[in-house]
């Protein structure tokens, strides 16, 4: 059973930025990030190296992608949900 199910933040326009970002990635990278988010969902609360608090209720899921790249998915928790707010691939 999921301890902290994930949900995509939705803008008033109906867009879901994290979902759109994920769709722009390769299948392999989407799978890696999806598995990492799933691990947080089922193992919450969870710490490093997979999940790190950023402060003021903001957390990051830390994923190591193909070709040595690193991705972050930022989330907060709200009413028992993991709300996926923003995501990016680190440049440095």
What does this entry look like structurally?
The termini are far apart. A five-stranded mixed β-sheet has the order 1-5-4-3-2. With about 90 residues, the chain is of the alpha+beta class. Strand 4 and strand 5 (about 80-90) form a beta hairpin. The mean pLDDT is about 95. The protein is built from two helices and five strands. Helix content is about 25%, strand content about 35%.
The chain-level structural class is alpha+beta
Largest sheet: 5 strands, mixed
What is the count of DSSP helices, taking H or I runs of 4+ residues? Answer: 2
Write down the overall geometry: globular
Q: Helix fraction?
A: 25-40%
Q: β content, as a range?
A: 35-45%
Instruction: Report the end-to-end length measured between terminal Cα atoms.
Output: 36 Å
Q: Spans of 5+ residues with little confidence (pLDDT < 50)?
A: none
Element-level helix/strand string: EHHEEEE
For the biggest β-sheet, the strand order reads 1-5-4-3-2
Mean pLDDT: 97
Rg result: 13 Å
Number of strands: 5
Annotation keywords:
36% strand, 5 strands, globular, 92 residues, alpha+beta
Question: Briefly, what is this?
Answer:
26% of the residues lie in helices and 36% in strands. With 92 residues, it is of the alpha+beta class.
């Amino acid at each position: 059973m999921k301890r902290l199910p994930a949900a995509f933040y939705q803008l008033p326009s109906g867009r879901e930025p994290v979902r759109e970002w994920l769709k722009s990635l390769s299948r392999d990278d989407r799978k890696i990030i999806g598995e990492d988010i799933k691990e947080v969902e089922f193992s919450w609360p969870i710490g490093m190296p997979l999940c790190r608090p950023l402060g003021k209720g903001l957390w990051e899921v830390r994923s190591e992608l193909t070709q040595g790249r690193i991705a972050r998915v930022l989330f907060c928790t709200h009413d028992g949900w993991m709300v996926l707010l923003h995501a990016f691939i680190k440049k440095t």
